Amino acid sequence: MAELAQTASEEEEAHVMSEGARKLVTLAVMLSAIMVLLDMTIANVALPHMMGALGVTSDQVTWVLTSYSMAEAIFIPLASFLALKFGVRRLLLISVSGFVLTSAMCGQADGIVEMVTFRVMQGAFGASVIPLSQSIMVQIYPKSQRGKAMALFSVGVLLGPILGPTLGGIITENMDWRWIFYVNMPIGAICLALLYFFVKLDGRGPSKIDWPLVIAMTIGIGLLQMVLDRGNEESWFQSNEILLAAIISGIAIVFFVARSIYTKGDIAPVWLLRDRNLAMSCIVMAGFSMGMFGITQLQPMMLEQLLNYPVETTGFLMAPRGLAAAVVLLALARYMDRIDARLLIVIGLTLNVIGTYLMTQYSMNIDIYWILLPSIIQGAGMGLVFAPLSQLAYATLAPKDTIGGAVVFNLCRTIGGSFGISIVNTYFSRIQQKEWNELGGSLSLDNPLLQQAAHAQGTTMTDPSFLAQIQNLVHQQSTLSAFVFTFGFLMFSYFCLIPLLALFRPKPNTDA
């Protein structure tokens, strides 16, 4: 009875909130989420510029990205506990304030140690923003408008990481790489003002910290993130460091999950996965994030390294994917609650399969049309997956569990993206090496086609310039084949997610 009364009370509160206040809260949490998510990818294109300023190698500078994602993955699970401890409003204000301050400190960093330290702090402060923002959207909209709420929130979730390289490229090329961090200061000031005046949710309650669980979670997720980020560079388990980190991570994660299920605590409440819709949503979201982040990692590599596009142009060519997702979400927001979410997800996954299939047809002669068309199709599909999937994740959860559900859901999104980038990099490098060996193995001095090519250029097969030309051609074609095969692998991964939708429970008829 008490739970039913709480549900009715929260539904009533959602209805009582004026439409104007709801819009301002929506703007506040969306802007905060976009700011945090932008910093996942905004620094990608600026790494070469940072190398000289920080005096580091290409291997060392990647810790600017790794440290942020590692801290975010570790601190996301703490959001539900911290919300109970400090309250939703206070925690958001602390998180955004800390994020803005550490962003300014990143811009001031003169060495790699300072930069990595401040990026860890930035990721730690920003980690709670995404699950709290999503939970607030669930709480301030009545169930009859929850699909619309998730559509609006998904605009920020998709635009942030996809537009990060675009904005980063523009700022780096026209201003200075330090401004990719300073730009958070005016945006953060607006967020803080909106959050302070319009977000009134408290949500404080009894909370207890479970130190064995926290320690196991920190070690397990932190080392897992390191293994995923550094594994391919270190030849995976051929490196004793990576092997040891993977073993310790596995043991710690098993302990952390078992203890969470046993204690049913507030920190990283994986025990909520007993709810079938949340569990299936997390699985599909992790799988979908693998493909999405894999493609957004791979395509800029292809445009810059293979097709020789400038950094700024590459950034602009990546933007239509996020813009298409935003357009689809905004166009369908008002209808989202009237259409079966599973149908929308099937259409979205199918569009991603089609868009990725078109990328398997790439050649060295593709034009802008062949770059933009698959991106737009994929972007439309992403919009049709993210919002309905978020809607299904909360469809059968009790209102008191929304923050915990958001924590688990976003943790799966983050780790799924890390797995995607790692798998794509490994698969790509293995295929590239395989294709290089196969193409190079067919070249010999008695190859008639090679003899004809040398004769047509008026040179001999032993001419160093001709050999260098052939070597460049082999590298080019092996790299192109690796991109095409990897896109095909990602297309298949999208297709495998479609049958999982049959396992979702129908949404209960409890709309307010």
Automatic annotation (TrEMBL):
It is found in: Cell membrane. GO terms for molecular function: transmembrane transporter activity. Its main location: membrane. Residues 25-511 form the Major facilitator superfamily (MFS) profile domain. The chain crosses the membrane at residues 24-43, 63-84, 91-113, 119-138, 150-171, 177-199, 211-228, 240-258, 278-298, 318-336, 343-362, 368-395, 407-428, 482-504. InterPro entries: EmrB-like (IPR004638), MFS (IPR011701), MFS_dom (IPR020846), MFS_trans_sf (IPR036259). It is a multi-pass membrane protein. CDD domains: MFS_LmrB_MDR_like. Gene3D superfamilies: MFS general substrate transporter like domains, Multidrug resistance protein D. It comes from the Bacteria. Keywords: Cell membrane, Membrane, Transmembrane, Transmembrane helix, Transport. This is DHA2 family efflux MFS transporter permease subunit.
